[in-house]
């Protein structure tokens, strides 16, 4: 990721409503949420929410898909990986033991479900 893309991502997330929106969409991966539902849950007027969603979309943090009469938004998880990699790319000067606590933070909170054979 180039620095100017990282700056665009950080700028998009530097406003409280947009940060809350992105975090809400991350919670609802992979199904996403309709724009109206996002506005309702965050108690933001729909026209204001539309502007926030456009900024997040331009930064590549979210994407939309039309479902009938609704527009459903989803977080772009790959973009999260890109920005995280950008931040820690030169981490720890080649000493991986220094990065272990950081890596532990990124361990999924919800381990994958193990298929049970009956």
Description:
The mean pLDDT is 87. Helix content is 56%, strand content 12%. Strand 2 and strand 3 (70-75) form a beta hairpin. It contains six helices and three strands, in the order H-H-E-H-H-E-E-H-H. It has helices spanning 3-13, 16-27, 35-42, 46-58, 77-88, 96-105; strands at residues 33-34, 62-67, 70-75. The protein has one domain (1-109): Winged helix-like DNA-binding domain superfamily/Winged helix DNA-binding domain (Arc Repressor Mutant, subunit A, Orthogonal Bundle). The radius of gyration is 17 Å and the shape is elongated. The chain has a three-stranded antiparallel β-sheet. The chain is mainly alpha-helical and 118 residues long. Keywords: DNA-binding, Transcription, Transcription regulation. It comes from Devosia aurantiaca. GO terms for molecular function: DNA binding; DNA-binding transcription factor activity. This is Helix-turn-helix transcriptional regulator. Residues 1-95 form the HTH arsR-type domain.
């Amino acid at each position: 990721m180039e620095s100017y893309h990282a700056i665009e991502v950080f700028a998009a997330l530097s406003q409280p409503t947009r940060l809350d929106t992105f975090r809400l969409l991350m919670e609802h991966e992979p199904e996403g949420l309709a724009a109206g539902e996002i506005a309702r849950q965050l108690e933001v007027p729909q026209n204001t929410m539309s502007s926030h969603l456009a900024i997040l979309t331009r930064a590549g943090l979210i994407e939309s898909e039309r479902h009938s009469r609704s527009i459903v938004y989803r977080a772009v998880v790959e973009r999260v990986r890109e920005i995280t990699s950008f931040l820690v790319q030169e981490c720890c000067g080649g000493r991986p033991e220094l990065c272990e606590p950081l890596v532990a933070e990124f361990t999924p909170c919800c381990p994958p479900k193990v298929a049970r054979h009956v």
